[in-house]
């Protein structure tokens, strides 16, 4: 048995023991047919999770953390003399802007408030005024705050103006139900350590094959991180161009099996149950959250630090960590907050147990309960 930790950070997530143990396999060269068959199984499963028709969409796998997907989509899907429109209301879309800056990609950084729904009128105006936008990009769940973006509406507007729609679904994929076609998504992305509850090191882009084929003619801006090259190689050889994360792939196969056993609806309800337990626990102690529940993805709660001289995040974190619960700092500049996330193989009961420990920590360090705000 491996010690079980309840990770309330926004990924990597708590995994099952069966997924952990699935990594222990005989040594194998990933160029063997046996391994290629495992890859194929994984690609099929990844498409199925987002109800993607394999005749229209494909899953392209990469070795790296989730940011590699963002890099790949942005640098590979921009035609010559066109622009990317980034709908930016959080840390992850800001990261996408930075990627554009690093590559020198023409882009519009359309900024919105971080704690309320995106202004769809502004999205439409930006597309009306910039007919050279070929790619619209945003984040589904801004993991820094838990703000949920209305991807179906954004995708519809992008398509109205003949732009491709790419969305970072790293922190919703395999948790909140997604349907590529109905949600008007051309490209989405995630990595194995979040929603599917496997290990870090495998990331994947799910996208429209016709668009990827067309991207063969777009400027090549990266060698290792090029979507078309990886797609083309996999199509030809059934495997990744460069060395895959072999053991993580086996863990992912097991995690997908467990995903389909639990089922899309039941899994989402479990995550939502965990999220509701988190919100109730925070409210019970008087904590305020950064965004109202109705704007939230149902996966991340960002709680504001109380105005109490005894509040010390590190001390509270360490107390909980020593007892098997990991909490995580916030990600909004100049604002003190911490996050509790509903990812992973955890249940509402784990959250009850967490709040027992968390409350003990507050009492030990003399933080007033209910917590105080000015
Ligand atoms: C976790 C996450 C990523 C990837 O982050 P890595 O640190 O590279 O794994 C990207 N986008 C979102 C929205 C995420 O939550």
Helix-strand string: EHHEHEHEHEEEHEEEHHHHEHEEEH
Approximately how much beta-strand content do the residues carry? 15-25%
What's the count of strands? 14
Classification by helices and strands: alpha/beta
List keywords for this structure.
3-stranded antiparallel β-sheet; binds pyridoxal-5'-phosphate; 12 helices; alpha/beta; Aspartate Aminotransferase, domain 2; Aspartate Aminotransferase, domain 1; single chain; 374 residues; 14 strands
Description:
With 374 residues, the protein is of the alpha/beta class. It folds into two domains: 19-260, Type I PLP-dependent aspartate aminotransferase-like (Major domain) (Aspartate Aminotransferase, domain 2), CATH 3.40.640; 262-364, Aspartate Aminotransferase, domain 1. It has twelve helices and 14 strands. Strands 2-10-9-8-5-3-4 form a seven-stranded mixed β-sheet, sandwiched between helices. A hairpin with a 4-residue loop joins strand 6 (141-142) and strand 7. Helix 10 (264-284) packs parallel to helix 12 and helix 11 (313-322) crosses helix 12. Residues 10-11, 65-67, 92, 139, 143, 168, 170-171, 191 line the site of pyridoxal-5'-phosphate.
Summarize the structure in short.
This protein is α/β, with parallel strands linked by helices. The chain contains 12 helices and 14 strands.
List the topology elements.
Elements: E1 6-7, H1 17-21, H2 33-49, E2 57-63, H3 67-76, E3 83-88, H4 91-103, E4 107-111, H5 120-129, E5 133-139, E6 141-142, E7 147-148, H6 151-160, E8 164-168, E9 187-191, E10 202-208, H7 209-214, H8 227-237, H9 246-262, H10 264-284, E11 300-304, H11 313-322, E12 325-326, E13 328-329, E14 337-341, H12 348-364
Parallel strand pairs: 1-12, 3-4, 3-5, 5-8, 8-9
Antiparallel strand pairs: 2-10, 6-7, 9-10, 11-14, 13-14
Helix pairs in contact: 2-9, 3-4, 5-6, 10-12, 11-12
The chain binds pyridoxal-5'-phosphate.
Pyridoxal-5'-phosphate binds next to loops.
């Amino acid at each position: 048995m491996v010690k079980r930790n309840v990770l309330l950070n926004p990924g990597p997530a708590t995994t099952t023991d069966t997924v952990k143990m699935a990594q222990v396999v005989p040594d194998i060269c990933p160029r063997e047919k046996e391994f290629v068959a495992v890859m194929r199984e994984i690609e099929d499963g990844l498409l199925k999770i987002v109800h993607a028709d394999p005749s229209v969409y494909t899953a392209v796998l990469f070795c790296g953390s989730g940011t590699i997907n963002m890099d790949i989509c942005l640098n590979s899907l921009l035609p010559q003399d066109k622009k990317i429109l980034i709908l930016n209301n959080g840390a992850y879309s800001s990261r996408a802007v930075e990627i554009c800056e690093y590559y020198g990609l023409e882009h519009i950084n359309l900024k919105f408030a971080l704690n309320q729904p995106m202004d769809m009128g502004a999205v439409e105006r930006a597309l009306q005024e910039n007919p050279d936008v070929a790619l619209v990009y945003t984040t589904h769940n801004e993991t820094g705050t838990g703000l949920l973006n209305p991807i179906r509406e954004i995708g519809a507007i992008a398509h109205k103006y003949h732009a491709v729609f790419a969305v970072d679904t790293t922190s919703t994929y395999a948790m909140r139900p997604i349907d590529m076609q109905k949600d008007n998504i051309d490209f989405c992305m995630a990595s194995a350590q979040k929603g599917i509850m496997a290990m870090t090191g495998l990331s994947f882009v799910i996208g429209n094959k016709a668009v990827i084929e067309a991207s063969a003619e777009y400027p090549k801006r990266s060698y290792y991180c090029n979507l078309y090259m990886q797609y083309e190689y996999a199509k030809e050889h059934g495997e990744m161009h460069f060395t895959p994360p072999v053991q993580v792939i086996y863990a992912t196969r097991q995690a997908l099996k467990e995903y389909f056993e639990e089922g899309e609806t039941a899994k989402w309800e479990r995550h939502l149950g965990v999220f509701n337990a988190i919100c109730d626990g925070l409210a019970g102690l008087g904590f305020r959250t950064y965004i109202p529940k109705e704007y939230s993805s149902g996966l991340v709660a960002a709680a504001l630090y109380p105005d109490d001289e005894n509040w010390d995040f590190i001390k509270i974190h360490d107390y909980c960590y020593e007892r098997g619960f990991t909490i995580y700092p916030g990600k909004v500049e100049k604002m003190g907050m911490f996050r509790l996330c509903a990812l992973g193989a955890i249940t509402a009961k784990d959250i009850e147990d967490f709040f027992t420990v968390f409350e003990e920590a507050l009492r030990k360090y003399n933080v007033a309960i209910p917590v105080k705000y000015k």
